[in-house]
Amino acid sequence: MITAYPVARKAESYEICEAFIQGCGGAIASAPAKLASGPAFFYGVDESNLGVWREVISNPSREWYYCDNAYFDTTRQSYFRVTRNGLQHSGYGVSTGARFQQLEIPILPWSEPDSGQHIVVCPQSDPFMNYVVGFNGNWRDETVGALRTLTDREIRVREWQRDKTALAATLHEDLKNAFALVTYSSAAAISAALAGIPIVCGPRCAAMPMSGDLFKLSQLPRKPRETWAGVLADNQWTLDEFRSGLAWRMIHG
Questions:
Q1: 143 pLDDT higher than 90
Q2: Is 64's pLDDT higher than 90?
Q3: Which of 100, 45, 78 is nearest to 241 (CA)?
Q4: 164-196 pLDDT, tens per residue?
Q5: For residues 81 and 67, what is the distance between their CA atoms, to the nearest angstrom?
Q6: Quick one: which of 214, 211, 216 has its CA closest to 198?
Q7: pTM for this entry
């Protein structure tokens, strides 16, 4: 039986965990969280469930599911992604494209090579990088430092803030006349790629199929995006689709 380990004292985490558990016949862990047998489900990680999280991901034989907000900024708080044994979907696979078409999100032409005046950098929160990713260091400073040795273009850093919906609302302006966007695994990479702005992201990001190499900024790829976008749309669901078990059935094919 699958057990969900919500973040303590966070109503949204409990609501999302309960919706998913309802659809797959699992249970919510009691507080303080102690690891039960069977698969584990997480929406958010902080000090209250960090011990269980680390115990789960350190065991290669343990099955786990990580849930977070939608892959597409315009569907944030309406859809939620779930990945089995990973933080995000790889972005590879096949899709009919039907669920993506329902979202009515445009895919704009890629920008011309060498066009754009600035590079957008999207750091993520320190707790996410430290607790969830296990990144040892300061991704923001290291990335900006590397970029300053690689380009004379303006580097525009979008500092992380708790209100992600408000942050996403301003991304469109920063993408105007941008040369590229760089992030570890923010959904901003997906928004940028769909807007036709080349990206560089980390290996655990769902936008990785569209990503180039930070040290080859003049050669960032511009690949077809329709199938990739369809795959991501097939791996995010509404809470009603959690409760009905549709998400669980689709995850397990």
A1: yes
A2: yes
A3: 78
A4: 666 777 899 999 999 999 999 999 999 999 999
A5: 6
A6: 211
A7: 0.94
